[in-house]
# Entry
Amino acid sequence: MRFSIVLIALLAVLVSPAAAAAAGPAPKHEQRVVIAVTKDGFVPAEVRVKAGRPVRLVVTRKVDRTCATDIVIRDFGIRKPLPLDKPVEVRLTPRKPGAIRYACAMDMIAGRLIVE
# Structure
């Protein structure tokens, strides 16, 4: 019986909010951004995200006739092909506020991540 009381007390301390705070911050949630390549280019062409939090771009090319058959994010060394009608995931973590440009491989069609 005494063992049960000690065990319950120990569990209460371990799951308390103070214990959780002492364990460190909770994992930061990924920001998911859906982008389509249409006849108008990257849509939306400007997206706001938070600095220091992982970002997952899900980019789907919806049109066949476009120069945006790849997505290039030079600041992160990213270049990925965009097959027609197939979502492509691009993951990155912007560390500081500012603008991050993404574009087609020819750098003619572009958009921006605004990092706040």
Notes: Residues 2-14 form the longest helix (13 residues). Confidence is low (pLDDT under 50) at residues 3-27. The chain is about 15% helix and 40% strand.
